[in-house]
C-alpha cells in the first residue's frame, strides 16, 4: 500500500488562511506549479531557500508514493524592472548593460541557477518551461480574455480590466486586499494613462523600436506581461484547475493575484486549490539586499569567501540549516547559526554510522513505531521540518544509549529505525553524507584504533608508562578510552 493512503497531509492554504486537509484532484497524483527565477543575475540565497522549501515538499510527496508533476518555470522575458508595468525588461536591461544578446544573459544565469541547485542536491522538476517558449499560448489567453470583456487595447498594449473583473469576481482575495482600498490608496500617475485604472495590469506590451525581445501578435509587435506566463504554463501542463501553486511570499501580490484573475477571466473558474507561500531569508537580522551589501551568494558560503563567515560550509550544512525552520517562518542566516547547524548535521551523520554497528538484542526499550509515526505526523502537519528534525535528534539520543549498552533494540526495530532515519534525512530533507568529512572521521577512528592496539601491546609487555601515556594524552585531546569486557572503546567529546 502506498504511504499516502495512511499519511494525511494538512497544508496551510494562503487563499483560505487555514490549514486544510490535502485532497488531490486525482487520487495518488499531485500537480504543483512553482514560480521560478527571472534569469538576469546570479541566484541569491533567499531564492534558493524558497525553491528548497518546494523541493522538500516535492520530495515528501514522492516519498509518500504520489505521482507528482512538478512544474517550475524559467522567466526569460516580460519581467519588468519595477515588477509592474513600467521600466525596462530585467533581462533586456542586463543585456544592454553588458552588451550581450538577451538570450546570452538568459543562458548564463540559467546555467548558474542549475549549478547552484545541483550543489544543494535539488531534484529536477518534471517540467521546466520558459516564458519565451510559450508566447503562442499567452497570446491565446489574451484573445480569450478580450473576447470575454475583461481586457482592452491601448496603443498596441493590452491591459486587464481589474474593475470590470471585480464586478463579477473578487480581485484581492489571495492577498486579503479590497479593490476599493487599493483605489483609495493610489494616485493616478501620468505615465500610466494608457490604463483605465492604476490597478489594471499589462497582458501584452507594445515593443518600442529599440526593444529586442519582441514577438508578432494580432496587436502588433510586443512581449507578454510577466503575470501571464505563469497562467499559460501552469494551466497548459497541469490543467485549468490544479492542486498546488507555490512561490515566495513576495509574489502573493500582485503576481499571484493577477494569475488568479487571468485564469478566472479566461476559464471561468479558480486555477488553484492550494496556494503555498514560502517565507524569506534574512541575514544577521536584516533583510538581504544587494543595495545595502547585506547579501551573500550561495557560492560564497561554499568557499567561505565572505566577511560574515569564519569558514566555508558545505551545501548539505546550509540545506540542514534551512530545513531547521518552518517554510512559512522567516529564517535568519548568521555565521553562528551555520556553525550550530554544522555541529548538528555531523551528530546526525555520526549517529547513523553508530546505529549500523549496534548489535541487536532480544528486546527493545525504544518504541520505534510510535516514534516513526511522530516523524510522519510532523511532516503531515504542513511539512513541519523543525519538528521532524527534533524527532531525528530524539533518535540520536536513543542511539547513543544503545551504544553505551544502557538500552537495547531488536533486529527488526533497528532496521525500521535505520530505514526511517535514512528516508527522512536523505530522501525527504535532501541531505547528503558529506564524503570528505566522513572519510576524515574514518581516518581519525583508524588512528585511535591503532593507538588502542599499541597501548594493549604495551600493557601486555607490562610497559605501563607507555600505556598510561597513550591514555592520558588522548584524554587531554578529548578522546576518552573505556576498557570493557569486549576490549577498549573510545569516545570523542
Ligand atoms: Zn509566476
Helix and strand topology:
Layout: E1 10-13, E2 18-21, E3 29-34, H1 45-63, E4 67-72, H2 90-98, H3 102-119, H4 135-147, E5 151-154, E6 157-160, H5 162-168, H6 179-184, E7 201-206, E8 222-224, H7 226-238, E9 242-248, H8 252-267, E10 272-278, E11 281-283, E12 286-287, H9 298-303, H10 315-323, E13 331-333, H11 335-357, H12 368-380, H13 385-403, H14 411-428, H15 435-460, H16 464-476, E14 479-484, E15 487-492
Parallel strand pairs: 3-4, 3-9, 9-10, 11-13
Antiparallel strand pairs: 1-2, 5-6, 6-7, 7-8, 11-12, 14-15
Helix pairs in contact: 2-3, 4-7, 7-8, 10-11, 11-13, 12-13, 12-14, 15-16
Residues 35, 230, 255 line the site of zinc ion (ZN).
Can you offer a commentary on this structure?
- A four-stranded parallel β-sheet has the order 4-3-9-10, sandwiched between helices. A four-stranded antiparallel β-sheet has the order 5-6-7-8. A three-stranded mixed β-sheet has the order 12-11-13.
- It has helices at residues 45-63, 90-98, 102-119, 135-147, 162-168, 179-184, 226-238, 252-267, 298-303, 315-323, 335-357, 368-380, 385-403, 411-428, 435-460, 464-476; strands at 10-13, 18-21, 29-34, 67-72, 151-154, 157-160, 201-206, 222-224, 242-248, 272-278, 281-283, 286-287, 331-333, 479-484, 487-492.
- The protein has three domains: 3-278, Rossmann fold; 314-428, no CATH class; 435-492, no CATH class.
- Helix 10 packs across helix 11 (335-357).
- The protein contains 16 helices and 15 strands.
- With 493 residues, it is an alpha/beta fold.
- It is elongated and about 100 Å long.
- The chain is 46% helix and 14% strand.
- The two termini are 44 Å apart.
Amino acid at each position: 500500500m502506498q504511504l499516502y493512503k495512511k499519511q494525511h497531509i494538512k497544508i496551510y492554504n494562503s487563499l483560505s488562511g487555514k490549514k486544510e486537509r490535502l485532497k488531490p484532484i486525482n487520487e495518488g497524483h499531485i500537480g504543483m506549479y512553482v514560480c521560478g527565477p527571472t534569469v538576469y543575475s546570479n541566484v541569491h540565497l533567499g531564492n534558493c531557500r524558497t525553491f528548497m522549501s518546494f523541493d522538500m515538499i516535492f520530495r515528501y510527496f514522492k516519498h509518500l508514493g504520489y505521482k507528482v508533476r512538478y512544474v517550475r518555470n524559467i522567466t526569460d522575458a516580460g519581467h519588468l524592472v519595477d515588477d509592474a508595468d513600467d521600466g525596462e525588461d530585467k533581462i533586456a536591461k542586463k543585456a544592454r548593460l553588458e552588451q550581450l544578446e538577451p538570450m546570452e544573459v538568459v543562458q548564463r544565469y540559467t546555467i548558474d541557477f542549475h549549478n547552484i541547485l545541483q550543489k544543494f542536491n535539488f531534484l529536477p522538476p518534471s517540467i521546466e518551461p520558459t516564458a519565451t517558449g510559450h508566447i503562442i499560448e499567452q497570446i491565446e489567453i489574451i484573445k480569450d480574455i478580450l473576447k470575454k470583456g475583461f481586457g482592452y487595447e491601448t496603443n498596441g498594449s493590452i491591459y486587464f480590466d481589474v474593475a470590470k473583473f471585480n464586478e463579477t469576481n473578487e480581485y484581492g482575495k489571495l492577498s486579503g486586499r479590497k479593490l476599493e482600498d487599493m483605489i483609495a490608496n493610489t494616485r493616478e500617475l501620468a505615465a500610466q494613462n494608457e490604463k483605465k485604472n492604476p490597478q489594471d495590469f499589462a497582458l501584452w506590451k507594445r515593443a518600442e523600436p529599440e526593444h529586442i525581445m519582441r514577438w508578432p501578435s494580432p496587436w502588433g509587435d510586443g512581449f507578454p506581461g510577466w503575470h501571464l506566463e505563469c497562467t499559460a504554463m501552469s494551466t497548459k501542463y497541469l490543467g485549468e484547475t490544479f492542486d498546488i501553486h507555490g512561490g515566495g511570499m513576495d509574489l502573493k501580490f500582485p503576481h499571484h493575484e493577477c494569475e488568479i484573475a487571468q485564469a478566472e477571466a479566461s476559464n471561468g473558474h479558480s486555477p488553484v486549490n492550494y496556494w503555498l507561500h514560502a517565507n524569506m531569508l534574512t541575514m544577521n537580522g536584516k533583510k538581504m539586499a544587494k543595495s545595502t551589501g547585506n547579501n551573500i551568494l550561495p557560492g560564497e558560503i561554499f568557499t567561505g569567501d565572505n566577511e560574515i563567515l569564519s569558514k566555508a560550509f558545505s551545501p548539505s550544512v546550509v540545506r540542514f540549516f534551512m530545513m531547521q525552520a518552518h517554510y512559512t517562518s522567516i529564517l535568519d542566516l548568521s555565521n553562528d547559526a551555520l556553525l550550530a547547524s554544522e555541529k548538528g548535521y555531523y551528530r546526525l551523520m555520526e549517529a547513523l554510522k553508530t546505529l549500523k554497528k549496534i548489535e541487536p538484542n532480544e528486546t527493545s526499550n525504544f518504541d520505534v513505531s510510535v516514534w516513526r509515526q511522530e516523524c510522519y505526523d510532523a511532516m503531515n502537519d504542513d511539512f513541519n521540518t523543525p519538528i521532524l528534525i527534533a524527532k531525528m535528534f530524539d533518535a540520536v539520543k536513543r542511539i547513543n544509549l544503545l551504544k553505551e549498552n544502557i538500552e537495547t533494540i531488536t533486529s527488526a526495530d533497528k532496521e525500521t529505525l535505520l530505514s526511517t532515519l535514512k528516508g527522512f534525512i536523505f530522501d525527504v530533507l535532501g541531505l547528503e553524507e558529506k564524503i570528505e568529512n566522513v572519510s576524515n572521521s574514518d581516518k581519525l577512528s583508524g588512528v585511535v584504533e591503532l593507538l588502542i592496539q599499541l597501548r594493549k601491546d604495551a600493557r601486555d609487555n607490562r610497559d605501563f608508562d607507555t600505556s598510561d601515556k597513550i591514555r592520558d594524552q588522548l584524554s587531554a585531546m578529548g578522546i576518552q578510552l573505556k576498557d570493557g569486557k569486549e576490549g577498549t572503546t573510545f569516545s570523542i567529546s
